[in-house]
Design a protein that fits this description.
transmembrane helix, calcium ion binding, Cadherin_C, alpha+beta, about 325 residues, 18 strands, Immunoglobulin-like, 2 helices, calcium, 4-stranded mixed β-sheet, elongated
């Protein structure tokens, strides 16, 4: 407090040591990753990232996969994570038809003492690829006898002959089906609706039209590139439905030759033949016994007289 005042300056540096009091924080609470099916193994599908506001080892973050909540999800065979940078990889080729989506949690932990950590949810959506061709449900193909549709000759234009039913195991536009008539015995007589597979007559029928027709229908999906399947239809023109439709004789002969004998029918035939033979044998034995009895009586005499005294009113002529 003297006059004049004298003073001096001294710089003091205070170093604040870091304490691991901040846990790593993910940049997002959840991540949604998309991967197309039939991917190559070890494909990089995405990255998760977390930061730590501490310093030094307290800010160094390592990543790991946490055990899935659903024990049925084989997470260890599906994805892996790089512990240093959070890169995620698909370990094997994914199939949309078998597994369309799955989710798991990743953890981020620092290297402090004690270490602090946080979690984030990762959803993986498997996108469909056009890897399934259409499958025809009706009419059945590769059967022993082709399915024949009956068409009355009096049918008007637009008459529904049959309908091709097909399905596709893919999804979205990859499963959109269209139908097209590729070939016909008589072009212009039939038409196929592109969106539902209905086969209808396109004009009136005449007596000059052939009785049997064969149609080749193409079923195609809307994928890129599109996949397709074909089906063959058989149509028989008839005058009416009063008489049942019978297959041609050659088809009946082939079916009879190819069909195995029914064991129950064989057993019934054998049993019936045995019973009939036994009955006939019994009748023959009975008739033979009767005939032999009558022959013995005839050889002994025309009549038999009982032994003993005769009554008084009878005369012994022996």
């Amino acid at each position: 407090m003297g006059t004049p005042r004298l003073k001096t300056h001294h710089n003091i540096t205070v170093l604040v040591s870091d304490v691991n009091d901040n846990a790593p924080a993910f940049t997002q609470a959840s991540y949604t990753l998309r991967v197309r099916e039939n991917n190559s193994p070890a494909l990089h599908i995405g990255t998760v990232s977390a930061t730590d506001t501490d310093a030094g080892a307290n800010a160094q973050v390592t990543y790991s996969l946490l055990p899935p909540a659903d024990p049925h999800v084989p997470l260890a065979s599906l994805v892996s994570i790089n512990a240093d940078n959070g890169h995620l990889f698909a370990l094997r080729s994914l199939d949309y038809e078998a597994l369309r989506a799955f989710e798991f949690r990743v953890g981020a932990a620092d290297r402090g003492s004690p270490p602090l950590s946080s979690q984030a949810l990762v959803r993986v959506l498997v996108e469909d690829d056009n890897d399934n061709a259409p499958f025809v449900l009706y009419p059945l193909q590769n059967t022993s006898a082709p399915c024949t549709e009956l068409l009355p000759r009096a049918a008007e234009p637009g008459y529904l002959v049959t309908k091709v039913v097909a399905v596709d195991g893919d999804a979205g536009q990859n499963a959109w089906l269209s139908y097209q008539l590729l070939k016909a015995t008589e072009p212009g007589l039939f038409g196929v609706w592109a969106h539902n597979g209905e086969v209808r007559t396109a004009r009136p029928l005449s007596e000059r039209d052939a009785a049997r027709h064969r149609l080749l229908v193409l079923v195609k999906d809307n994928g890129e590139p599109p996949l397709s399947a074909s089906v063959t239809l058989h149509v028989l023109l008839v005058d009416g439905f009063s008489q049942p439709h019978l297959p041609p004789p050659e088809a009946e002969a082939e079916a009879a030759a190819a069909a195995p004998a029914d064991p129950l029918t064989v057993y019934l035939v054998v049993a019936l033949a045995s019973v009939s033979s036994l009955f006939l044998f019994s009748v023959l034995v009975f008739v033979a016994v009767r005939l032999c009895g009558r022959g013995g009586a005839a050889r002994a005499g025309r009549c038999s007289v009982p032994e003993g005294p005769f009554p008084g009113h009878l005369v012994d002529v022996s």
